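User: I'm putting together a teaching handout on how sequence relates to shape, and I'd like one worked example. Could you take Exodeoxyribonuclease 7 small subunit from Granulimonas faecalis, show the sequence you're using, and then write out its predicted structure as tokens right after it?

Assistant: Happy to. First the sequence, then the structure tokens directly below it.
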Amino acid sequence: MAEPTPVDQLTFKQASVELEQIVSSLERGDLELEEALGAYARGVELLTSLRGRLASAQQQVSVLFDATQPQQAPAGAQGAAAPQPAARPPYGADGPLF
């Protein structure tokens, strides 16, 4: 069997598809113990990489989002007050959170 591609050389989608395949084969139970352990280790490696990439992407989106928000004047500054962003209601997708 050929060596798997190093995780850092896989695209996010490739890593995700490979992880899904590993999970499916482990759920089916069609692997020998040694193969299952190797697949599980590879799955952990893929999952760790995918989580790190998602955290990085989330941080980048947060930075970009913050850059689009109007800057507020420091407290005590003279002149017209900067418009305040609308407060987000305490609602989830299905209504109030409490």
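A couple of points you could highlight for students: The mean pLDDT is 85. The first strand starts at residue 91 and ends at 92.
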